[in-house]
Amino acid sequence: xxxxxxxxxxxxxxxVYHYINGNQNIxxxxxxxxxxxxxxxxxxxEKKIQEHLQRNQDEVNDAAIGLxxxxxxxxxxxxxxxxxxxxxxxxDADEETKSSxxxxxxDILFEFLKVNTPLTGxxxxxxxNLVPQDEDSRFKFWISLDAWIFKCFPLSVTDDSYRSAFxxxxxxxxxxxxxxxxxxxxxxxxxxxxxxxxxxxxxVFPLKLGQSYRKVGIWPYFDFIFKEAFVRSRMLENLQGxxxxxxxxxxxxxxxxxxxxxxxxxxxxxxxxxxxxxxxTEDFFAYVHESPATAVMNYLFNEKVFKVxxxxxxxxxxxxxxxxxxx
Length: 327
Known about the structure:
Helix content: 55-70%
Number of strands: 0
Radius of gyration: 22 Å
């Protein structure tokens, strides 16, 4: 944690990265090995508990079984500290350093998400700091995240089943916060044109995301983000937590709207351009349907969603001043 606190800013982040890299006692590779070993131990613990339940049908002493494999509360503290170190260095790192950390830790962290721990949200926040600036390089993140959420969950054609898939892996405030942080980074527009919009015809996620095991596309993500995370955020009594969720969703909305350059449609008319030739999908209609901007606009006109937006926008100056004083 002490080393993590020294990594603020690009220069300091690079210094800490090289310090760990050249350290005789601990290195980035050894950190990756430690996390991998604990993933294997936790996975083994889960199997033992399941086998015990199948044999005895009575209560299981998780702690006692865990101690046999060296798993206790100190392990959570250790892993949490390692996640903080990786995340804090990656947060301000240049793209080359971030790429190096990402190649080492991304697959490991997605494997970590598959085991049951209280650090699911923390792992996703680390992953959010490893997301590269180049949109095409993010596809690996999308594919791994989508498989973790949906691939092993029994889905039906209903939206409710998709929301249940999210709820199955996102059980706590920390989980949802970490998930929104990761989605916010994955949707961030980097390849902008002069108007600030994303290069026309591209996506920040893989084409046909989820193909072969669910209905394709990004719409299920927005359904959960708006109907579960955003709408239900007003029920949070903790003001700081509510702000955190709402700010992340507002950031997701902004990025999504900037992912579609509407001016291209207007300019194509006098130019006589065929929009089908400008997009990566089979045609322009498919591009519009799969665009994050289309999904966001759809949900923004949902009464429960725009009611929350108006509540945020209509906060009075007096109330805002009081809240700032209490921070």
